[in-house]
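Each letter names a residue; the fold follows as C-alpha cells. Both lines appear below:
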Amino acid sequence: MENSEQSHTFRLEDRRANALGNLKSLPDELICTILDYLTPRDIARLACVSSVMYIFCNEEPLWMSLCLKKVNGPLQYKGSWKKTVLHLENLPNEFIEYCRKPLQFDGFSSLFLYRRLYRCHTTLDGFSFDDGNVERQKDLSAEQFRREYDGNKPVLLNGLADTWPARNTWTIDQLLLKYGDTAFKISQRTPGKVSMKFKDYVSYMKVQHDEDPLYIFDDKFGEAAPGLLKDYNVPKIFREDFFDVLERDSQPPFRWLIIGPERSGASWHVDPALTSAWNTLLCGRKRWALYPPGRVPLGVTVHVNDEDGDVNIDTPSSLQWWLDFYPLLADEDKPIECTQLPGETIFVPSGWWHCVLNLETTVAVTQNFVNSKNFEFVCLDMAPGYCHKGVCRAGLLALDEDSLENIETNMSFDKDNFSYSDLTRKEKRVRTLRSQFSENHKGITNRAHKSYNLWKQDFSYDINFLAMFLDRERDHYTSPWSSGNCIGPREMREWLSKLWVGKPGMRELIWKGACLAVNADKWLECLGKICFFHNLPFPNDNEKLPVGTGSNPVYVMHEYVVKIFVEGGLESSIYGLGAELEFYSALCEVNSPLKNHIPNVLASGILHLENGSCKIDCWDGKEVPGVIGKCNLIPEKDTCDVFPFGVWSKKLFEYRKAGSLACGADSLAGSTSVWPYLITKRCKGKIFAQLRDVLSWEDVLNLASFLGEQLRNLHLLPYPSLSISNLSDVEKKRDLPFANGMDMEYVSNKSDIPVEWQIFARTLSRKKKDVSIRLNKWGNPIRKMLIEKVEEYLPDDFLKLLSVYEENGMKRIRKPLSWIHSDIMDDNIYMEPSFMSCSNGIAAQTNNGSLNGHNNGGEEKSWHPNYILDFSDLSIGDPIYDLIPVHLDVFRGDSCLLKHFLQSYKLPLMRKTSENGSVTGCDKFGRLSYHAMCYCILHEENILGAIFSTWKELRTAESWEEVEQTVWGELNNYEGFA
C-alpha cells in the first residue's frame, strides 16, 4: 500500500515533464511569456497538445493580453477574456456560446500560476493599511505650499474640493445615469488605443477578476463629456502652469479622469517630463507609495534608449508589488505611504516615484503642471541625450561602474566643482534592480540597501547637479528627441518663445530652461560673433531667444534676421544655404515679381571654430569654401557651373540619402564646429500663424489669391540646367547600391527620359522601399490596414506619374518641372495691417506696416500678405508638391481656399496634349489627387498624421482612395490654363 501511494505520488509529480517534453526545462514564467507572442488561433491549437499546455493556454491573464493586443478602439467585455477574443475573431456564435466545463487535471502545480491566480481573485478589504506618514494639511496658503512642499515633498490636502459639484455627483451610479453611452479611454500597457462606453465599463467592473483590471485613464474626458469640466476647478495653489501660454491643441496631455475597481491602479512611474501633479479623490480609497527622485523602487528596472534617451520602465503591477516586493523591505527602505480618502488631494512633486493601488472602486481627477519650481527640470528632461534622463529617474544607478567610481572620488573632494567631463562613458543602459522575483530574499534586500545608501549619500535632485550629465556634444537642434517627450522639438521652441514674450518678469528662469533644452547660450554666442563681424547691433534682451518653430536657430532683431543653418548636420546645411543663394541669384537675373515678396539678402557666410577660436568666412554660394573643403565635402561634378552646392547638387545629395540604409544619415550630422548662416532684412508685420484667428474671411481669401500668384511666379522661374547626362554615371562614381539597376523594380530604365526626371522618379522609388517601416514608426492615427495596403497603392514605376507620351516621334512629359519652395506654412508667411485713417471726415485706406504695428490712431481694418519666408528647403520637382503644406497647414484642408488659390495660380499641373487634350478619365495616373496623395505618403515628414488629425472621419477609412478623394478631390476639378 505504501509503495502504491509512493508510485501514485511519483506519477502526479511527473505530469509536467511528460506533458511538456523538451519544454520541461523552461520555467513556467518563461513559458507564459512565450505564449504571449502567439496568436489566439495558435493558442487554441496548442491547448490540444497536452494537459499541462491546456492549463497554460486557458489562463485568463493570457487571453486578456491577447485581447488588448488585438483591439484598437471600442471594447465590449463578454464575461471572460477568452470569450471576448473569440468575438473579436468573428467566429460563429455557436462556437463562442458553447461553453464546456473546463477540464481539471491533478498532478500539476505551479507556484507562478498560483500566485497570479491569487492576485486575480484576492480582495483588499481584509488587508490592514494605516493612515501612513504623508503629512496632512488643511487651509494651506499658497506661500506656505511653495515654501514647504512645492518641489520638496508630497502632502495630503483637505478642503480643496469641498465646494466642487463633483464632490457629490461623481459616483459610479450618477455618472452611469448621465454618461452611460459616453466612451472613455482605457489605460493598459498595450500598443493600441482601447475605449469603452461607460455602461460597458461598469458592467465589466462588476464581474471581472483581473490582477491588473482595466482602468479609465482619459486625458480627453473634457472633450468626450464637457459637463465634467464644470464639476471641478483647479485649486488656487496649483494654478500657475507655464503650459497655459500654448493653445489648447498644442498643449501636451495634462488632465485625466481616473476610474478603477479594487486591485486596479498605477504601477511605479515618474510623471512625464518631470512635471508635478495633484490628484483629488471623489469616492473610494487609494493607497499611495512614494520614493524621492533617483531612488528606484525594488522590483523596477529602468531602460534608456541609446539613440534618443527615451525612458522605458519594467515594473510589476501595483498589486503584485505590494504583495510580492513590499514585504521584503526593511523598515528604513519602505516608501513614504498614505491612504487617500474621499475629498482629499495629494500633491506629487517633480521627479518623485509613485505607485497607486485602489482599495475599492474609486473616481478621481488629476492634473500635471509646470511652474517656476519644476520648469528647469522639465526643460532638462526634454533635452536630447540619454545620460541625464537616466540619472533624473534612477539616480547614480544609471552610471556604469567606472563612472560611479569617478563621481564618488570627485564628490569626496569637491562636490560643487564636479564636472560631467570627468565621467568615462562605457555603456548607455541604465542598470537598476531587476524586476524578476527571486527566492533569495536576502540578496534582494542587500541590493535594496545598497540602492538606498547610494541615493542617500551621493544623489542630489538639484538642477545644477543633474545638468552636469547632459551630453554637451549633442546639438539640440539636430539630435533626435525622445519619442516619449510630452511635446516635440518644434512645440518646445514655440513654448519657450511664447514664455519669453508673455512672462518678461521670469526671463532669468526661462533663459536657464532654454539653455538646457535648446542650447540657447551656445547659439547666442554664435549670433554675437556674426553680429560683430558684420558690424550689426548685438541683440537686446527681447531678441536673445531664437524665434519660430523651425529646426534652425533664427533671430529676429530690430532691422535684421539672422538664420544659422544646423538642421540635418553640416552637409544638409551647406546644401540648404547653397541652394537658397543660387535661387536668389536666379531671381535677380530675370527680375521676377516674386523678388518683391521675399526678404532682401544682406550677407551670408560660414562660422567655424579654428584652433579654439571662432572665425567667419563670407560666402555667396559660389565656389567651395576652404573650411568646407577641409571637411571632405565634395559636391557633385558637372551639376552646374557656378554654384557647387546649388539646388542640383542638393537634389543628388537627397537622392543618395533617400531610403538607402547604406548611405545612412548625414555622416557629419554631429559636427558642432561649422555653421553656415544667412542675414536678411527684417519683414514688417506679423506671421500668419499669429493672425489666423483674427483674420476675416475676406483676408483669408486674399491670402489664398496671393499665394496662388506668388507660387505661379516661383514655378515660372527658370531653373538651372543639369549637365549630367546619365544618372548611372553618378551612381558608379559614388559606388552607390543602385548603380547596378536594383531599383528598376520601381523605375523603368528609359534612357530617353531626361536625367532631371530620372532623379525625381528614382528618389521616390527609394523612399517607397522603407515606406511601411516609416508609417509603422509614426503609428497612430494611421490605420494598420492602410499601412498594409500602401505598397499596392503606390506606383510600381514612378515614371508613370510623369504621363509620358509621344508627339511627332519624340517623348514628351505632361508634368511641368520647376523650382518648388516645399515649406510654405503658416509661420513662413508675413502679413501687414491696413488701416482706415480719417481726415476732415473722409476715410482713406493706408498701409502702415513699416511702423511696426503702430497705426498712429487709425482704425485697424484688415491684413494683407506681403512676404514669403524661408527658402532653405528649396528643391526642383513637381509643383503639386508645393500644394501639400499650403493646403494642409495654411488652409487647414479647406477645399474652398484651395479652389480660390488655384484660380490665381493659373498654371497647368498636367499639360494638355494635341491628341486627346487634358488627362481625366478613370486612370489613376490621370488624377491629380492621386499624384498629391502619393507625395503625402512618401513625404519625409509625418504628413499623414496631419491629414488624419484634420479629417478625423478618415481614421476609419477603408482605402487610400477614400483618403485621396477626401483630401485632394478638388484638384481633379482643376484644368489649369494652357
Remarks:
- The mean pLDDT is 83.
- The first strand starts at residue 73 and ends at 74.
- Residues 390 and 661 are 29 Å apart (CA to CA).
- The two ends are 104 Å apart (CA to CA).
